[in-house]
Design brief:
Four copies of one chain form a homotetramer. The first copy, chain A, is 47% helix and 10% strand. Chain A is globular. In chain A, helix 3 runs parallel beside helix 4, helix 8 packs antiparallel against helix 10 and helix 9 packs antiparallel against helix 10. The C terminus of chain A is likely disordered. In chain A, strands 7-6-5-4-3-2-1-8 form an eight-stranded parallel beta sheet. Chain A has one domain: Aldolase class I (TIM Barrel, Alpha-Beta Barrel), CATH 3.20.20. The longest helix of chain A has 20 residues. The first copy, chain A, is α/β, with parallel strands linked by helices. Chains in contact: A-B, A-D, B-C, C-D. At the C-D interface, helix 3, helix 4 and helix 11 of C face helix 3, helix 4 and helix 11 of D.
Chain lengths: 337, 337, 337, 337
């Protein structure tokens, strides 16, 4: 199952990186369920993303239910992801755990399975100091030298602000090559502080601004919308690339607006903090409404969602599906291969 | 190893409940360490607490390193705790995990080992809504009907405010009999809302105020100072009891002041939020400075502590040790047994 | 108009201290209004509170619209308050302003008018450090040596936590004799740190707990319910006093529950932070629904209140009015004078 | 003194807008001081800024001590600013007060004096809802139709997040033409929501990113560094303009780095929240260390600054002064006029 591999580099992190869920069988929101992984749907979605032209896959983060899978389920999903992908695109799998030793254990197994990297947050029982967070990434890198690290910058989940002096320090760890990034007001500063050793991935809707601010370095983004149908985000990637060359940004700006409009109702009252409480159930409701894949129910304890918030998530999914459809006839060359 | 047991009741939660650490061998702050449990010291400390007269033991919380032990270590410690205690006092062990199913798994094993209950927080990847938190406790209680539950009210760790309407709802779960409690400004309100079905345990230094506000119901407290030597807190328990009968509170007030004075320098700049970042390393430094037991180093990633904060923790330990010594000649009848 | 006066002492701060509004004429929620003070209603309410048996009056705080009155209106209200009260009870008027010099100016005028003290927060443009807050109170005390100071502990309004080391320092200022206090979890600690030189006034609903925790020192409270009819709170004051003597707290506990029940719906979703956004409009809606006095509309910009919150405030007022009525036939001796 | 004027438009907000202090005489940190305005220095600094080539002046904000001046001082400073400027550049003066009516009073006087606009925050006793904040700006605009409004987006001072739906609503007020803006992560979104009716001014160090993200609309910035010597920031303005034309951003990027480097040590431990506590004293220490002008001491109560923070502010001033000197020989054409 494992492939021979060398450590992935920052130069290999380009284009559209899709975040994907861990599909769940019906009934998976019941704590009595033991084998919740919908393997068929996982295989279908992975194949669909790659065929759809995404450049990389990020799995087992928040919406990937890193926290609520059993170890057996997580292992099976990682193995499937690596096998189906078969090296066509790089894959990063989440191995965030409650402590350093468990993270080492999971990351080593993921590495042995053939994953290119781990999407990794910080242990979350105590809010970490900068020194604690930096040492943690150093320890994981030392223990798992072949695994790339995508720093998972989620301030609500990890109770950590990921400040500039954190980036300045982890930039010297060769394994730290990218970040699922959410500090857009500090992007240029963090790029400088990390000496362009970490590809910061903004969310798709923010990629337009990033690409304009630093066209040479900002060449990749993450997206939670590829699993609602990948055509809009792969097209967006290509449109941005073309705009950098032509310096005509009109179409790119327009698509950024479309993607942002589709995303907006996912956030209850526009609040990321409120979104974070219901993150997983909202994202899965969105995907299920989009209909491109079946993410299934949310695993406990995060399966409870107020009715008032459900409709926004579904509307967001419907808008994303409409964009996917709109851009289906305009498939980018990469996606068409 | 297991004992026959029936569900513990709120009436059985009385007196001084000691929080204890999971003693670590030298070198345990290195992530390469595999078997970090100092079993001899664990046995010695458990025996010492019981001989010292505490009424119950809470283990595997934050300072008990619930988050950073391997499962094997945690299992061994739980088994040892139950075996050494041998039913002389009730024991609650922490089984907080990242999700409902893993908590069920751990709690069932703890129950089979013979623990009386679990000291249980809420999964912490996403901040829970009240509905999510209530359902979580209901699910655990349903899955583990023989285990008492001590709700672990730590707002920083669990990103949850434990509001009054939470208590009102979990009060109807028979397993929820007590709480390591930290919402003193709402104590009377929470006692009312929970219809006296949950024994709220304030920290020792706050027990004086609780005992005066509601002498009939406030009959127990938790203490992180028993592991610095138990004589002051067991004496304090008895002095409060006597004050309730005599309505002469002078000595109790004086002891509350002493215990608070010993505790104060543990908190950097008086801040609980700052304390929470370094909680485990601070508490273990305190215990080690007190010298009553050897808690050993802190397991990763929480082993990093600024020098500026170390001295406060050690001073707090020395003060607690001095109080233990002061009250050694005044051992309470319970402790002398 | 002014009376000869000496500095009020901590021993004079006892019993029920009523917070009162600054009644507004119809149309006062329009920024074009110039003379919004309903002087007749102010006189009637002041007289009613004193006849109703309150022990002191606090005016020109948040709900007293310290922030939104013109200086002329504020001056007229202060003069009226002093004149109608005529020394029968002590009166504290709010002179919180944006800086030290303006506070000195207003406080000196209030002192000349004959007010006994000022209910004083800290300037709120920048969140103050402890050193800044302490120096501010020292400066005001030095500039206005005859005025008592009631420290206005409102954490949301003043962006300040009023920590224990603040109280320890302002306790040595002779003018600082009391505080409208909201840090119940630190009450005993703050009483100790301030060497009983500051009478901390809890809100009525929390006075039961305070009186039990420290019966000797906790002899006074503030109440926003006297202006919904004073009979319940003055009765409550006397019931607590009797309980301290008899050590039978059943009736006191019952009344604390009643008062808390009446207060509860004032707070949207139980949140003090949310309440603070709409504080003034909520409190005035409450009073107006209670019907004991006519507080009038809220002055701009704080006159906007979501419909969803209005009903809670009104229900709170109706409950307070019902309690007033219930205890009208049970008037305490003090109130009957 | 007043000039004839028509309402300033968004198109007139371009280039470098200097924030300036209200210079204070020696001893102004004593609350006994009555006439603290150093008028000579004010005149000199205003003239220096204009000669130095700034495009507009913002006065009487936080560091301009809007909160701590007496009304007489504020009036005198506004009159001087308008008179010395004599229409050569637009001037906005701060009239933020505790309520709507007082803001109207001050703004009307400022308008009569000839100011082009007000730099206006929201009343800060209660945190405002979006509806409250929007209505407040509508009321001021209605009352003062000839005055431009620069929305003062300072989240710490005004306890308000200035969210996108706020901008969407105030964009329809003709007087709202610009904002001293600090929400860089939402810049494109806010530009869209406000239909390009509000010129958002980022701080100089963030102007590079803004200008790249939206070169057509982002044509102006605010700067607290012009008062440390204006040559670097006016040069920066011109370099950015040239870069937009040539699409060669190297020099602009380099200058943004220099300006950011000079600014950095002003923020204690990199924290804006901590900076906000000591904002005024830090900024004045910075200016005084730079030596281009003499801002004098800080007015009470904000004159207290920990020694540990002073050095950072002074270093920041020295760096800004060095940049000013470096670019003195490279004066831009506009500055040389």
């Amino acid at each position: 199952m494992a492939k021979a591999k060398s450590l992935i580099t920052v130069d290999e992190i380009v284009g559209a990186w899709a975040i994907m869920p861990t599909p769940a069988k019906p009934g998976s929101d019941d704590w009595r369920s033991e084998d919740t992984l919908d393997l068929d749907e996982a295989e279908r979605a992975i194949e669909g993303l790659i065929k759809g032209g995404v450049n990389g896959i990020l799995a087992l983060g928040t919406l990937g239910e890193c926290a609520t899978l059993t170890w057996d389920e997580k292992y099976k999903f990682m193995a499937t992801l690596v096998e189906v992908t078969a090296g066509r695109v790089p894959v990063f799998v989440g191995t965030t755990a409650l402590n350093t030793r468990e993270t080492v254990r999971q990351t080593r197994i993921a590495s042995d399975l053939g994953a290119d990297g781990t999407m990794l947050g910080v242990p979350m029982w105590c809010a970490p100091s900068v020194a604690t967070a930096v040492q943690y990434f150093k320890d994981i890198a030392e223990a798992c030298p072949d695994m790339g690290i995508c720093v998972y910058d989620n301030k609500e989940a990890f109770k950590f602000d990921f400040p500039t002096n954190f980036w300045a320090q982890v930039a010297s760890i060769p394994q730290v090559v990218t970040s699922k990034y959410s500090s857009m007001d500090r992007l240029l500063q963090d790029i400088n502080a990390s000496h362009q050793q970490i590809r910061f991935l903004p969310i798709d809707a923010a990629y337009y601004g990033a690409a304009r601010m630093h066209p040479e370095f900002c060449t990749a983004f993450w997206t939670n919308s590829a699993v609602c149908g990948p055509n809009a985000v792969t097209r967006f990637r290509d449109v941005i690339k073309a705009a950098k060359e032509s310096n005509d940004w009109a179409e790119a700006n327009n698509m950024a607006g479309e993607i942002g409009h589709a995303l907006a109702p996912l956030f209850p009252n526009g609040s990321f903090k409120e979104f974070s409480i219901y993150n997983i159930a909202l994202e899965k409701a969105r995907m299920n409404a989009a209909g491109w894949m079946n993410a299934g129910p949310t695993r406990p304890p995060y399966h409870i969602l107020p009715d008032a918030y459900l409709e926004g998530a579904q509307e967001s999914g419907r808008r994303a599906a409409a964009l996917h459809k709109k851009y289906s006839s305009l498939k980018s060359p990469a996606a068409a291969e």
